[in-house]
Amino acid sequence: MLKDTAFKAKNGFIFDYGNLYGDNKVTADDLFAIKDKLLAAHQAIADMRVTGEIRGHLSKDGQPEKVLFSQLPYIKEGNINSPASIDDLVEFGESLRGRVDAVISFGIGGSFLGNKVLIDAGLGEFWNAGPAGGRSGLPRLYFSGNNLDGARTLSLLSEIVRQAEEFKEKGKRPYKVTMIVISKSGSTLETMACFMLALKELAKYNDIIAVEVVAVTDPADGAGETLLHRLAVREGWRLFRVPDGVGGRFSVFSDVGLVTAAAGGLDIKSFLAGARSMDEECRSGDIAQNPALLNAALKYLAAERYGRNIEVFMPYSDSLKSLSEWYIQLLAESLGKSKNRSGNDVYYGRTPVVAVGTTDMHAQTQQHQEGKLDKVVQFVQIAEWPGDPLIPDVFPSEPKLSEMSGLSFGQAINAALASNAEALTANGRFNALFILPRLDLYHLGSLMYLLALSVAYEGELADVDAFDQPGVESYKRILGPKLAKLKKGND
């Protein structure tokens, strides 16, 4: 059924599945046994692209709801991402240059994780440390609202105040802060609690800090208007959209995920172009020619036939740790379902685990290598590293140190990945490899879109709704009354 062990996309992206498919792994017979499911899954997603409809999918309110994330890579009139909406985002980012000193993005789940991936990969860990000139006049970027951690929120606000006081000492204008608050409803507990605390605390320093707010929320007004939309209109805040038909874990390709990237001056059009190139690669019903369907099929069979119910997502790059964290939500919320579409108990889904190479070769690999045979390890490799330094021969009299010198860091980290994969395979441990030619937004868009499309296909294979999240609503129904009771006790 598969003649090769790797798929190479036109843009250079590679999915190497040789350690997941073949003898003593997922076999050709396994794939043949689900050929009808594969055809049905392909057709279901093909129909979704055209109509937005997925069989049996309802909103959390029990109403029919379209699924539109596959539209997002295409910038065209009538689409969620239109030329005007993308230009609006780019203009917003440029409007901050030289005018705004810090941006705080408030969001949780899909309103945080995708944004963090783009900033980490596109700007790096030390973006905030340099002077404004080193950032070409663009603001520092911070995240909040992704946890009910009051201590961390106050620490962030103290840092903003410190910067503002330093700014004042230099005789400059008031320190300008833009708050981006992202919530479809406007009542998300973590996001709104941190946002309101920030507004209150920074208002105490209005002589040295000027605050403006940007809201990203449901665009509907009138009877269906959300709390946050109503606030934004009343307060005169700039508005971007949380689009209908796009779940939070898929929203990185919309205003929700692109707004913070735009604030950092990142090339959001390139990110969407990378996603678009992957969508175009994933149109075939032949799994050998469709990497998202192939990835879904192999992971589905690894779990269902071979008990590999844990997926360790392990990029070999510090800058991609947040990619693993984004994938945790994507996989867990999409596929962790107790019932299939017929209402039967299935308890489907792999448990996702964050790992980073080479760091976690010294922490998790013992378990991967010798623990239970219940894991698939998914590696991500960067083929070409920018500014790739050589390991210097600083202590030539020490053979153990001298023997590693002369190699580039990129060569060493990729050799470590290959060694890990070889050792795992030799011990019957399933693993696979995604290779990005370079770490840039274009190829990141390709990978993230492949992962999003893969869970859509796998939902069809497993006959579960990959686009709802009823389990999340369970704790919310309990939490609301608990908070009300606590508030009553405090009054």
Helix % is 40-55%
Give the tally of β-strands: 13
Oligomer: single chain
Neighbour order of strands in the largest sheet = 1-2-13-12-8-11
Structural account:
- The structure is a single chain.
- This protein is of the alpha/beta class and 491 residues long.
- Helices cover 44% and strands 15% of the residues.
- It is built from 16 helices and 13 strands.
- It has helices at residues 28-33, 35-51, 83-96, 113-122, 150-169, 189-203, 227-235, 255-263, 268-281, 291-306, 321-335, 365-370, 399-402, 409-426, 441-462, 470-490, and strands at 6-8, 14-16, 102-106, 140-144, 175-182, 209-217, 238-241, 310-315, 337-339, 345-348, 351-354, 375-384, 430-438.
- Strand 5, helix 6 and strand 6 form a beta-alpha-beta unit.
- Helix 4 (113-122) runs parallel beside helix 8 (255-263) and helix 4 runs antiparallel to helix 11 (321-335).
- The longest helix is centred in the last third of the chain and has 22 residues, at 441-462.
- The protein is globular.
Topology:
Blueprint: E1 6-8, E2 14-16, H1 28-33, H2 35-51, H3 83-96, E3 102-106, H4 113-122, E4 140-144, H5 150-169, E5 175-182, H6 189-203, E6 209-217, H7 227-235, E7 238-241, H8 255-263, H9 268-281, H10 291-306, E8 310-315, H11 321-335, E9 337-339, E10 345-348, E11 351-354, H12 365-370, E12 375-384, H13 399-402, H14 409-426, E13 430-438, H15 441-462, H16 470-490
Parallel strand pairs: 3-4, 3-5, 5-6, 6-7, 8-11, 8-12, 12-13
Antiparallel strand pairs: 1-2, 2-13, 9-10
Helix pairs in contact: 2-15, 3-8, 4-8, 4-11, 5-6, 9-15, 10-15, 11-15
